[in-house]
């Protein structure tokens, strides 16, 4: 039935996952897997976390959806919590990472118009990085300079320029009066887990300040605690003008959000943007449960402690298996093992041995466990990796 009726825009592994508990999932044949995909960096608090489940169950029995024609109290609470983390500002709620980035791109256009004294279409360009990934909408595709994402859908949305990641001068070369913003992932996720350097992010912040450009940070994959800080850009101590988030925010319930600093929040006025589902009571309840669990279980702290051990163990694996492994990239639980040759056969071999991973870029195997994974389960992951990279493909 899957083959007959589901559109063939994905290439799923030949299996169905039917239940999960903590860091484990089970397939339809009752085989167990340690889940280091986490629904592509989504299952922040693992599978079926009792508090997350209970709060969603209680909310769905009370009120599931009402639209943004009315105040949604949970939105106010969640927006407040996100502003405590991102800074003074306002939050827009949507349903996915691509929509969070659409919000950032629309914000950039509004800023460009204001900067040009109200004239539209004069200052509207956004510079993004080579090897970036910002989503599959027309805004997201335009911001994603990769043939495999754009092919077949041309012409692309106009107004995007691209520069070399981790090279401030390359971005500087693209700046002129038509540019209004720079959009960056703090860690390029789909591109293979390539972190922006602190020097680069600081340099880009200074460049934005110099030319009155908005610094838009896409934290859709690396944010929500995955690196051991709530936003990955906190590691560099760099303040964004707006941040896009999604994935881990709902812990498995679809929600996206765009935070914009107070200085630019006036650019959106009633009627200027919106979406039916954005921030509905279910989505906000899920996200509030994620934030509460992150606090009550000290997840950021445990990532920093267990992550240190895990990174050392992964580095030892690289030394032990130099025929197959070339390095480890990433911060906290946003990690890729770099392999020689095609990562895909290794992803399959790891799956056969009970560890779910996902390719990132051309040489990366992404390892993105739930943030509440135990030390013991991290140790299990290292044992499986050690065994699998001791074999040949
Ligand atoms: N931005 C980044 C950095 C992502 O990694 C992704 C998805 O992988 C997106 C945006 C798009 O998010 P979504 O798939 O929820 O639309």
Q: How many strands in all?
A: 17
**DSSP summary: helix tally:** 14
- What integer value in Å does the Rg equal? 21 Å
Which consecutive residue ranges, at least 5 long each, have pLDDT under 50?
A: none
- Please give the CATH class of the largest domain: Alpha Beta
Q: How far from one another are the termini?
A: 32 Å
Structural class: alpha/beta
Fraction of helical residues: 25-40%
Strand arrangement in the largest pleated sheet = 4-12-11-10-7-5-6
Bound molecules: pyridoxal-5'-phosphate
What spatial form do the alpha-carbon principal axes imply?
Answer: globular
What features would you describe in this structure?
This protein is of the alpha/beta class and 393 residues long. The chain folds into two domains: 2-49 and 298-389, Alpha-Beta Complex (Aspartate Aminotransferase, domain 1), CATH 3.90.1150.10; 53-296, Type I PLP-dependent aspartate aminotransferase-like (Major domain) (Aspartate Aminotransferase, domain 2, 3-Layer(aba) Sandwich), CATH 3.40.640. Helices cover 38% and strands 19% of the residues. The chain contains 14 helices and 17 strands. The protein has helices at 2-5, 38-41, 50-60, 73-86, 97-115, 138-143, 147-150, 168-174, 198-211, 262-265, 281-296, 299-320, 344-352, 375-389, and strands at 17-21, 24-27, 32-35, 89-94, 125-129, 160-163, 179-185, 187-188, 194-195, 214-218, 242-245, 256-261, 325-331, 334-339, 355-356, 358-360, 364-367. Strands 4-12-11-10-7-5-6 form a seven-stranded mixed beta sheet, with helices on both faces. Strands 1-2-3-15 form a four-stranded mixed beta sheet. Strands 13-14-17-16 form a four-stranded antiparallel beta sheet, covered by helices on one side. Helix 3 packs antiparallel against helix 11, helix 4 (73-86) crosses helix 11 (281-296) and helix 12 packs parallel to helix 14. The longest helix has 22 residues, at 299-320. It starts with a helix and ends with a helix. The mean pLDDT is 98. Bound molecules: pyridoxal-5'-phosphate (PLP). Pyridoxal-5'-phosphate (PLP) binds next to helix 5. Residues 40, 96-98, 101, 133-135, 185, 189-190, 218, 220-221, 246 line the site of pyridoxal-5'-phosphate (PLP).
């Amino acid at each position: 039935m899957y083959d007959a009726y589901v559109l063939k825009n994905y290439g799923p592994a030949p299996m169905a996952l039917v239940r999960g508990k903590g860091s484990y999932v089970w397939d339809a044949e009752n085989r167990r897997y340690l889940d280091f995909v986490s629904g592509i960096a989504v299952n922040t608090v693992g599978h079926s976390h009792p508090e997350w489940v209970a709060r969603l169950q209680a909310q769905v029995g009370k009120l599931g959806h009402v639209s943004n024609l009315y105040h949604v109290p949970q939105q106010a609470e969640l927006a407040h919590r996100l502003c405590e983390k991102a800074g003074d500002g306002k939050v827009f709620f949507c349903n996915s990472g691509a929509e969070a980035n659409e919000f950032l791109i629309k914000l950039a256009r509004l800023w460009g118009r204001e900067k040009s004294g109200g004239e539209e279409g004069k200052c509207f360009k956004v510079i993004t990085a080579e090897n970036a990934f910002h989503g599959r909408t027309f805004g997201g595709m335009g911001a994603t300079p990769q043939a495999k994402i754009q092919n077949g859908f041309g012409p692309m949305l106009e107004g995007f320029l691209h520069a070399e990641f981790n090279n401030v001068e390359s971005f500087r070369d693209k700046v002129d009066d038509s540019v209004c913003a720079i959009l960056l992932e703090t860690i390029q996720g789909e591109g293979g887990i390539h972190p922006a350097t602190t020097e680069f992010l600081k340099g880009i912040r200074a460049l934005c300040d110099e030319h009155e450009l908005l610094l838009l940070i896409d934290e859709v994959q690396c944010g929500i605690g995955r690196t051991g800080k709530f936003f990955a850009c906190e590691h560099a101590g760099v303040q964004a003008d707006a941040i896009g988030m999604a994935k881990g925010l709902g812990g498995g319930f679809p929600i996206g959000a765009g935070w914009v600093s107070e200085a630019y929040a006036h650019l959106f006025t009633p009627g200027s943007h919106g979406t039916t589902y954005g921030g509905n009571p279910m989505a906000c309840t899920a996200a509030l449960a994620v934030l509460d669990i992150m606090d009550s279980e000290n997840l950021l702290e445990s990532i920093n402690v267990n992550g240190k051990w895990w990174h050392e163990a992964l580095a030892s694996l690289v030394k032990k298996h130099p025929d197959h492994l070339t390095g480890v990239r990433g911060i906290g639980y946003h990690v890729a093992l770099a392999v020689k040759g095609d990562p895909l056969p290794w992803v399959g071999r790891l799956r056969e041995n009970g560890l779910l991973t996902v390719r990132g870029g051309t040489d990366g195997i992404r390892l993105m466990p739930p943030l509440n994974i135990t030390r013991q389960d991290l140790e299990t992951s290292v044992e499986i990796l050690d065994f699998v990279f001791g074999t040949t493909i």
